[in-house]
Amino acid sequence: xxxxxxxxxxxxxxxxxxxxxxxxxxxxxxxxxxxxxxxxxxxxxxxxxxxxxxxxxxxxxxxxxxxxxxxxxxxxxxxxxxxxxxxxxxxxxxxxxxxxxxxxxxxxxxxxxxxxxxxxxxxxxxxxxxxxxxxxxxxxxxxxxxxxxxxxxxxxxxxxxxxxxxxxxxxxxxxxxxxxxxxxxxxxxxxxxxxxxxxxxxxxxxxxxxxxxxxxxxxxxxxxxxxxxxxxxxxxxxxxxxxxxxxxxxxxxxxxxxxxxxxxxxxxxxxxxxxxxxxxxxxxxxx
Length: 287
Fold this sequence. Notes:
Blueprint: H1 2-37, H2 40-47, E1 49-54, E2 57-58, E3 62-65, E4 68-70, H3 72-84, E5 87-92, H4 95-103, E6 109-115, H5 118-121, E7 124-126, E8 131-132, E9 135-140, E10 156-160, H6 164-173, E11 181-185, H7 188-197, E12 202-206, H8 207-216, E13 221-224, E14 233-239, H9 242-260, H10 263-272
Parallel strand pairs: 1-5, 1-6, 10-11, 10-12
Antiparallel strand pairs: 2-3, 3-4, 6-14, 7-14, 8-14, 9-12, 9-13
Helix pairs in contact: 2-9, 3-9, 3-10
């Protein structure tokens, strides 16, 4: 009996010691975990690098020319990097992988233009706008069967899969009282190619995107006016949560500063052909 009592006591002491060590280790881990992600801006500044993600098939915002990443977003994020004293890194992903990549922590800022919508605001944090995002349509030059947005009844519309512009045109088509067919694409350039080839009758995108495409190939493409979509804006996004708030606010402050000193206007004129005043606060979504 004494031997058994001694053995049990030793077992208890060992268990308590083990539990104490486990608890101490857990306490250390718990104390470290929040600091690692308590402030993304602090982490970014410590590294000196702002990691961004986008889809480089979305002219004039993001595109590759001669193997080089160029576009409105490239110029704009480079200026933001200068304003914040950071080096900027860029990752190129298909649009359908950009927001999941942000959530997975592959980067801390999406610079692919993201339309401000009610649904997305519940999931992501938006910076101040970087461009107009009102949805519009583009047809083949000389196609007189489509003179206004409602003329898409009986036609086939092409658009980027998962984009708010495609979602908007589907909602719009449902109000027209006739059948409209849809083709969905990985990126907008594929939609434009099918429009040029006659495989779709119109392509849907934001007005700035379509205006740029039409300006590059006026003999092939013409924008259908007026735009059918509700007025809205493109922004950049971060993950939603306190850890990302400071980064998002710092990026927004840099964008406002760039707008105030005229750098924004020069970038807009270079890529969009004109300067447009943008809100200096995140606007309420229109849909």
